[in-house]
Input
Amino acid sequence: HCTPIYWSSYSERKLSSGINAEYGGFGFPNQSLTAFYSLRLFRCCLVMLAKNVSRYVGAGVAVSGAMLRPRVQLSGFSSNSSQGPLSVPDKFGIDLLRDPNFNKGMATTLQERQTMGLHGLLPPNFISQDDQVERCMNHLSAKPNDLEKYIYLCSLQDRNERLFFRLLKDHLEELMPVIYTPTVGLACQKYGVLFRRPRGLFITIHDKGHIYDILKNWPVKNVKAVCFTDGERILGLGDQGCQGMGIPVGKLALYTGCAAINPQHCLPVTLDVGTNNEALLNDPMYIGLRHKRVTGKAYNDFIDEFIMACKARYGSSVLMHFEDFGNKHAFRLLSKYIKNTCCFNDDIQGTASVALAGILGSLRITKNKIGDHTFVFLGAGEANLGIATLISLKMEKEGIPIEEAYKKIYMMDSRGLLVNSRTDLTEHKTHFAKDMAPTKSLEEVVKTVKPTALIGAAAQPKTFTKEIIEEMTRNNERPIIFALSNPTSKSECSAEEAYKWSNNKAVFASGSPFPVYNDNGVVFEPGQGNNAYIFPAVALGVMCCGSISIPDDLFLQAAEALSNLVSEKDIAVGRVYPRLADIQEISVQIAVSVIEKAYDLNLATVYPKPENLEQFVRDQLYNTDYPTFIPDTYEYDMSEFQ
Output
């Protein structure tokens, strides 16, 4: 961020040559936000706000070519204008209306229309952003289904970004199922038909050796977070190839909608290595590469080049968000990069954190400790292995040896119970293998083990049968039942089934939303274990403090912080998560907790540590209010000199 207080062409030349001489060009990493570095130049005073500079020389400046462009953004500074922060765009006339970052539609004032060459290009009416939000909701209510609503919201984001995120902020609970699961799953399946305007980068396996050049084509240089997928395991839908782009686009929309992260700092990417989905390969509308998935060394080299190119282009502290990679790659890639890259896998760590938060919330209903529970997992993929691992870490934190914690967790995959006699178990699964007879029956496992908690993330619908839930109820006063598979069609059971078959005793949560359940006046509001509670907040905290890595300790901290935000009113209706409507405030509180933990672990690079972390976080939040294009003007008072 570069804010010229006084500028001239001479100043620009001096600054450019001076920094080139001192730092050897503009190629050093963009690490911005901590230090204030001032240069006294002829007729020029320049304040640079940089993040994480202390990581390098204790006090330095991160500079990119974008800093010296004519466009000036003063949104972080106070203004006397009632119309919001000042933003002087580098576009004029019709080009301004076509830029979603600046377009305000009919909220553009008369003075702005006349000054910026917009007069006559808009209807002669002036409405507020509040009125625009109301109009958008009226349009949405007229749409026949959620997919049409999804298409409308995408078009709104393409033409007016601030209005889109204002709408999302004001109606997040209602719109979350539209912009993300379950609707985004259908959108990915139909992405070839729905594709209208690029939003993100498509990088193929055939672009090896040129990935950095492709990153340079993205118009924003100050990228802080990259969410990327290879499309191999989209939700519970399997291989969607290139059409998995809907996932990183949706995830990054939630970065802003849930945690108010500046959308200009976010980049969605699809890494197209082919697809093994025969239906897509034979579909004339498919938009991706038409060959089988590339694997092995070529795949590994491709991912490695992509990670290195992102760090070279955007700085070594850029957040790399792995999303919806297949099981055979997800754990391996996370283990490979987690120590030397600021990265996380939401399917493993994010899901684990939000599930653990729900379990910790459930303890307020069951009235005991996590070490008192025995868990059975249906599914042993990324999500459940991540949850089981984080539960084990939480037990260890409470004084239970890690090996004893593993003994309290039983897992089933597609081949049955994880037992020591099996020879096909991966390293991550062996921790939870038991000395028991092999079985593929979940009901048999429940009867034998008598668990207190049953967690499903196998994308196998209706597998939590009436018999199984009744058995759980016989063994427990308040059985914990989490059906976490997405989308709704893949859920292990519905909220109504869990409550009805348990005689209203179940402590239930799901991955996708279910309606309120009312049984003759007994009302339950099922909690949704949505990753959106966690990954935007963790990203916000990490980006604010410049954490050099994101270990499981930060996700454990986030889970504990989230569970502490569940109110007594939530518990009274059986909801083990706070309301989604409050998620921006929730994200701030979680981010503060994550930052505090990052400093405790010596991971943060922003020094000195801010005295008021909450205010520090709030100062970074994206403002959905429209900026004004007209700076404040005033007259000199020369009366005393006359």
About this structure: The longest strand covers residues 33-41. The radius of gyration is 26 Å. The chain has 26 helices and 19 strands.
